[in-house]
Amino acid sequence: MKKKLVVLTGAGISAESGLRTFRDSDGLWEGYDVTEVATPRAWVKDPKLVLDFYNMRRENVRDAQPNAAHYGLAQLQERYDVHIVTQNIDDLHERAGSSNVLHLHGEIFKMRSEADETLVYDIRGNINLGDTAEDGAQLRPHIVWFEEPVPLIEEAARIVRQADIFAIVGTSLVVYPAAGLVNYAPWPIPKYIIDKKIPYTSSVQNLTVIEKPATEGVKELITLLLQG
After folding, report:
1. Of 70, 93, 103, 105, which is the active-site residue?
2. Is 203 exposed, middle or buried, given 0-12, 13-18 or 19+ CB atoms closer than 10 A?
3. Does one domain contain both 96 and 83?
4. Per the CB 3.0–4.6 Å rule, which of 65, 107, 122, 199 could disulfide with 173?
5. pLDDT surpassing 60 at residue 25
6. For residues 91 and 103, is the Cβ–Cβ distance under 8 A?
7. Is it the case that residue 174 has pLDDT exceeding 90?
8. pLDDT bracket for residue 142 (50, 70, 90)
9. Which pTM value belongs to this model?
10. Residue 221: domain span
């Protein structure tokens, strides 16, 4: 039986593939105030602006490529039962070869009815005003916006509880409820955190800190795991 390695990933792992986040620049996301493009209020106020913003994000992700950190985590599947819980909406983990990926905050290549969140469809191009789901409602990005509940958080917590090893890669641990997942990892198991600036983690037991960018940090993580 392979040990279960659960990895929580955040924006830092995709940043090295050229995908920026709103935390890079004083609350602005490539020039946008997140409250104007990533909240239910923004959708009501100006749905075209929101759609245009996510159409650009989708184009950014299409152009991006997985980096060494994505590939490194995928390669660990040879030795471990790897489950990735990601806060990222891109598909770089999947393109690198990871099989078990849970997207806490939605997926950029999916869209859904604004009236029925169970009506979800694949999308590679743009979503436009007037594009409707089969229920006749406007289609919106299949993204969990700020101020919306996170439907998969309980499933993520269940996965973390079952971990034999837990790792955190490229997340500032300030976006809740995702940041709280570290508290579900069993107390005695080994834990690792990789980030170029390690957040406050003094309450986490059995923790190995790797203060490096994701690509360098995952390489070190692999070395440590293979030595263990």
Report:
1. 105
2. exposed
3. yes
4. 199
5. no
6. no
7. no
8. very high
9. 0.93
10. 1-19+66-105+150-228
User: How far apart (Å, rounded) are the C-alpha atoms in residues 109 and 90?
Assistant: 8
Mean pLDDT of 184-201: 89
User: Is 222 in the same domain as 133?
Assistant: no
Q: What is the pLDDT of residues 90-109, one digit of tens each?
A: 999 999 999 999 999 999 99
Cα–Cα nearest to 205, from 178, 166, 179: 166
User: How many domains are there within the chain?
Assistant: 2
Phi, psi of 4 (to 5 degrees): -90, 115
CB atoms within 10 A of CB 126: 13
Tokens 């490194």 found at: 72
Q: Which amino acid is at 207?
A: L
- pLDDT range class, residue 203, cuts 50, 70, 90: confident
Q: Is residue 103 among the annotated active site residues?
A: no
